[in-house]
Amino acid sequence: MSRAPAAWQRFVLAHGWHARGHVLAAVLGQPVADVEHVRRTRACTRLKTGKRFAELFSLWHGRAPNDVDWPTPWKGAAGVYEWQAPELALLASLVGRMGGAEISRILTTRLRLRTGDRRAKRSRNSVFVGMQRLGLQSTDTVGGITLEKAAKETGAYYNIWNAIKRGELRAFRVGRLWVIPHEAWESWKASRVFPPKGYVQLSTLKRPLGIRSDKLSEWARMGYVPSALRCNPFGTRAKLTKFGTWYIDAKVAKRLVADRRAGRPMPWWGKPEPYNLKVTWKLLQERLHPSTCRTCAQIWGPRGAPVTYQDYVMRYPPLAFGAKRHLTMIWSPGLTLTEVARHTGASVSTVKRAIDKGMLEAARAGRSLYVTKTDATRWKARKCPIGGNEKSWITLETARTQYLFTLTELRQFIAAGKLRSKVGTNGPMRGLTYVPRHQCAKLRETIGFSEGEAARRVGVSVHRLRTLLKGVDWRGADGIPLDTVHAVARRVYSQDEGYTLEQAAAKLGTTVAWIHERKLDGTIRIQRAKFDRRRIYVTAPMFERLKLAKAKPAKRERFTSAWLFLTQAANDAGVSTGSILKWVAAGELVRRHSYLGWRYFRKSLRARARRYWETVRYHRAVPPDWLQRERVKPAANEEPAALRLVA
Question: Which residues make Cβ contacts (< 8 Å) with residue 502, sequence separation at least 6?
């Protein structure tokens, strides 16, 4: 009589279909061989799918398994151990708190303890596969937001990264990721400064103002840009820097662009820059010229060279560019008389005679005479005069007229030794006092002009002169240089000889656009001032042409939409512009010239395009839409030609 099966055997027969043998053995506490012996009877109940360890353990023990209840992980044919629920739970708890390498080390240590296999390993790749099984990603974090997600939220990656490096924003590492705690992230966002309403980014003015460098932000930091405000917002498409981004009132920005286009001075023109001042102060200390340097004495005046940096900051910026260049250049006493002779091609005796006659200035340093290279070059340009030519000397009256000195000032210069003189002895020159022409010019260049003298020289009022000086490169020092006076005179002459486009349009009662059209159709030419490329004007003869064109407008052909420009013609024909020009050269297209360029007749263009697309060599070329619509399509009830041929 056969014995009734035990409880564990009945359990195997009821639930052991397609379950793993070592799993059943671990649940039932029986040897694997006994479990397999029962299953080989083929009396097991057939199930749709095999049951796993957790379900089998719950059916046998009546409770869910604990971590210690799980069996030793099974090693597959490929030498890889299976993933069990406790290990997956540990993996899920570690994701977001540490990187893949750390997780791999922890799981490898656990697996070796569970299996006793020192070669068991959970690689980084297997860890990522396990994360995917759980629906997790390597970028998932716990308790914070990654740097990349924060950058997407604000649109400013480097601002956040620099804040982390400076310690302004707390963050920690999770593998290769930087994670920012939620409370720290919200606090950092709340500290951002946003621009007021109606403000625009200062860097957008670089192109309208013709500035290619980053000087705008530097001038804003110095306070030279009106209404400029440093902000550090987020969520904008503007590029932000770690030092913040400058914004400016839109009305002020519009006024700055208008001033720039009109040639008016910018707020930062002629303003000192601290960085440049520090560099030039250091260079001045290194290359300080000796007290015998007459040019330095003239530049600094009776007070002498500045001793402190504060005094230097007050006195250095108003100096002319040439004076600044002299102060920071390596000092040299000049050229010896022999070097002057070699430089000019004259003899040494000629150089000495020119110095004695006052035609060439020389300074004594020690026992030798030296001439500056500038004076030697100018003397050479004057063809090395030695004072014997009458053209080198002018009367006091001529000096007064040409160089705007008074007779009293000229006599004072002669008495002080600043101006050489001689008295004529022959004919009409008898008794007249003569002075060197070049010395008068040099004195005037050194002293400069007062506002009244400069206004009288230019022929305008003092008030008008002050307005004109704003448009030239003058730093407002004592005495207006001769070159500046000449620049103002050229500016006045340019304004008197023509009209700006706005002035011409106002006088003619038309618009600036109409004047531009007359320029395009060849009626007039617009001039540009050589000394100021921003000034565009219409000369008097061109203005008369405009008046004639306004009184008797020329009849011009009005082109309809049937006449296309070159690019439009190429797009309409579905070819390149080069093909259009080839067709024109072959006389196959009808075209006419307008003041905006050549126009091509659409009808002749499409006729030539049809012939082109019938014999086109390129198989992938697509005809234009209008040509595809023109091609005849077969009727819906008509058999294709290929089928008719088969039939």
Answer: 512
